[in-house]
Design a protein that fits this description.
By secondary structure, this protein is of the alpha/beta class. The protein contains eleven helices and twelve strands. It binds 3-isopropylmalic acid and manganese (II) ion.
Amino acid sequence: MARYRIATIEGDGIGPEVTRAATAVLTEACGADTLAFDGLEGGAGHYRRSGEVLPDETFAGCRDADAILHGAAGLPGVVYPDGTEVGNDLHLRLRFRLDLYANVRPIKLLPGVLSPLRAFEGGGIDYVIVRENTEGLYASRGAGVLLRDEIASDSLVVTRKGTERVARFAFDLAARRSGAPRDGQRRVTVCDKANILRSYAFFRRICDEVHAGYPGIAIDYAYADAITVHMLKRPDFYDVIVAENMFGDIISDLGAATVGGMGISPSGEIGDTHALFQGAHGSAPDIAGQNAASPIATILSGAMMLRWLGDRKHDADLARAADRVEAAVATTLRDGRAVPRDLGGAATCTEVTDAVRRALA
Ligand code: IPM
Ligand code: MN
């Protein structure tokens, strides 16, 4: 009987391929009796067949599991009458119903991966974006105003509780890291538009209040427009960035692009009792079923899952397995043993997965 049950939603497009790659690597790293992957239905394809994007039994399976691993969701043309995409609703519903308030997006340039930022080809980009994941502009999803085909509006919601807990998460994360590559300073950068909107000035004020409890960590501020320039000109200055939901969604893709793209970027959507792990990419239906997708983002998300689960369950074996998975990915990319297409190579999903599994050994 496996020690931990992982709710596993392969989803749409490349989701099944990258999920199976990750479960193979995680099983190799942890041993066969550690993780049981409980396959659950959900996503746009399932909605097209059944009318449900997140079936009750899938939600129950996620609620009762030790962690959730997700491939990707979304298919072009599968939309609700209001025009919003069905597939996205799968994990938006999980985010809100399981209260996964911290969307953790590591932005790290791995050895052997070329950054489009020439000044950082040799490395030096290593920060984490902590995106508030349960309110902000997303609080209005499904609740916006659409009147007489004439006016539409969505409200931005910032709460004290929502901001306090995501800011505390960011400062706690910075306390566990070793600081920004540029100067070794433990730092949390608050990304907002406090100069313009009261909601963001409120967000910043709450972050300042939380910072008062972390004297050893510097606080820094960057407006959402300005930070896009800094992320390209001085990414090594950043350690942890905390942002409202929509800003976090936008800057995390920009950050991913500076370290190899969405195919290499993992994510962990973490609450106090549950967490969902998935690559930051989408379902890429154009390359689905061709064994062409890079499994790296989902494999690294699996490593994040092991680390989170190991921390919660005080299971050092899981943390060690996470280290081994991350080291195996780094070795595979550094030595060019199997370079996925999105990083300029020609390796298939299977070839990358097998190379990582060999590097584990
Ligand atoms: C992300 C994605 C999602 C978001 C979509 C797929 C719902 O872009 O996780 O960054 O908008 O948050
Ligand atoms: Mn996004």
